[in-house]
Amino acid sequence: MNFFIENAYAQAGGEGGVGGMLTTFAPLILIFVVFWFLLIRPQQKKAKEHRAMVGALSKGDEVVTNGGLLGRITAVGDTFITVEVAERMEVRVQRSAVSNLMPKGTIKSA
Fold first, then answer.
1. What's the pLDDT score for residue 61?
2. Is the N or C terminus of the chain more exposed, i.e. has fewer CB atoms within 10 Å?
């Protein structure tokens, strides 16, 4: 009499154990590996290069700050540096606020 409802039968147990877990988590592992190589690793490399650049700053270097100021370093401290942005105009900024180290002579050509 049941014309519209099919009978549901239990199937035999498929793959189980370690093989089933591996195929379940394989897409998640693949996504993590892709994120690691495309996002996390390059960001860590860039941060390491920035730390090395900030650690090597010295008097006379020409730098650009995060705020866009172009100037020459006149004094270097442990956490702060003094940057001359114009004649007799000096600004103190944190070392980490330096975004780029410019080639010598950039200020003269600017």
1. 94
2. N
Q: Three-state DSSP class for 13?
A: coil
- Distance between CA atoms of residues 89 and 34, nearest Å: 48
Q: How far is CA 46 from the centre of its chain?
A: 6
Kind and range of the H or E element at 102?
Answer: strand 98-102
Q: For Cα atoms 81, 59, 84, give the angle at the middle one, nearest 5 degrees.
A: 60
Per-residue pLDDT tens for 53-66? 999 999 999 999 99
Structure tokens at 50: 């920035």
Burial 21-31 (b: 16+ CB within 10 A, else e): eeeeeeeeeee
Q: What 3-state class would DSSP assign to 27?
A: helix
Assign domain 59-109 to its CATH architecture: Roll (2.30)
Q: What is the pTM of this model?
A: 0.69
